[in-house]
Design goal:
The structure holds two protein chains of two kinds. By secondary structure, chain A is mainly beta. Chain A contains two helices and three strands, in the order ββααβ. In chain A, 11% of the residues lie in helices and 46% in strands. The model of chain A has no long low-confidence stretch (mean pLDDT 87). By secondary structure, chain B is mostly beta strands. Chain B folds into two domains: 57 residues, Roll (Ubiquitin-like (UB roll)), CATH 3.10.20; 135 residues, Immunoglobulin-like, CATH 2.60.40. In chain B, strands 12-9-8-13-14-15 form a six-stranded antiparallel beta sheet, with no helix packed on it. Chain B has a four-stranded antiparallel beta sheet with strand order 6-11-10-7, with no helix packed on it. Classes of the chains: A mainly beta, B mainly beta. Chains A and B meet through β2 and α2 of A and β2 and α1 of B.
Chain lengths: 81, 213
């Protein structure tokens, strides 16, 4: 075997709540073409459905969104004699 | 705090036909299934994955929960008139709700008040919406006086008095909203369940509605 690498990509959405609490929702395999308008359009959809985990405060808006790409390299130890 | 914890489990098929399930926690237990499904579909639309299922999970914590006791809801007697006729005309200004700078009082007749608590503090939330129904801004009370209470030993009124200003969290003006909803939340007590009444303004001047939600 040889060393192998694995690349993953996630979209991290930060939801803001009325009491100031934040929560991040991570989604695997995000589209490349996501725009700010796509995220803002979900404000009204999330309102009343999710709430903060501290005081169960209502959802206010999506505060931020970012895509994170990470690469993990797995070393082949079978040849390390 | 509710002792029911609601989650949505989203099942998708992603790259290489890999099936993945993901939980969205801290769902409002009062949210209906359609709203939860719509949110899950919207979230998944941001990905390249194919949505194959959404499951709702309601878990009740029985560790600390007391035995279930039937509780009455706070009841407002609309037959006796609410939003009294002699109240000033309701208006939405730059950042106030009321008849003018002095604010406005609402004395809303209550029906039977079954709470053993003499005073019930009433919280409220103010949300505003655009003409197309989408969310506009959330407003908080920026100073001034707010009184919201129930006093069952005196006149059975739900009294609300605003004399301050509302501040948009996103710096918006109330005057630019098409619809404003003020939720008055009567908290759970020993004998009454949590109950929410909503005062809705749909115009910048004139009629308002008040109903349990």
């Amino acid at each position: 075997m040889a060393d192998t690498t694995k690349t993953t990509k996630q979209l991290k959405l930060v939801a803001g709540f009325i009491d100031g609490d934040d929560r991040t929702i991570s989604l695997d395999n995000p589209r490349d073409s996501i725009t700010a308008a796509d995220i803002s359009a979900m404000d009204s959809i999330a309102a009343g459905v999710i709430f903060g985990d501290k005081a169960e405060a209502g959802f206010m808006r999506w505060k931020s969104a970012k895509t994170v790409e990470s690469t993990v390299k797995y070393l082949d130890l079978t040849t390390a004699d | 705090m509710s002792n029911i914890k609601t989650s949505a489990i989203i099942t998708t098929v992603g790259a290489n036909n890999k099936v993945v399930s993901k939980a969205i926690t801290d769902i409002n237990p009062n949210a209906d299934n359609g709203a939860i499904k719509t949110l899950c579909q919207s979230l998944n639309s941001l990905t390249n994955n194919t949505l194959t299922g959404v499951q709702r999970v309601d878990k009740t914590d029985i560790t600390t929960a007391t035995p279930s006791v039937a509780k009455a809801e706070v009841t407002l007697d609309t037959t006796r008139g609410h939003l009294d006729e002699d109240l000033p005309t309701l208006k939405i200004g730059y950042n106030y709700i009321g008849a003018g700078e002095g604010g406005v009082d609402y004395y809303i007749h209550l029906g039977e008040v079954t709470s053993s608590d003499t005073w019930i503090p009433v919280a409220f939330l103010v949300a505003a919406y655009k003409a197309d129904g989408t969310f506009f801004d959330e407003f908080y009370y920026n100073g001034g006086t707010f009184i919201g209470y129930v006093d069952k030993d005196r006149d059975p009124y739900f009294a609300v008095k605003f004399t301050g200003n509302f501040q948009g969290r996103n710096e918006n003006s109330l005057a630019d909203a098409a619809r404003i909803e003020i939720d008055f939340i009567f908290p759970e007590t020993a004998t009454t369940a949590e109950t929410t009444y909503r005062l809705t303004f749909t115009h910048t001047e004139g009629e308002a509605t008040f109903a349990k939600v």
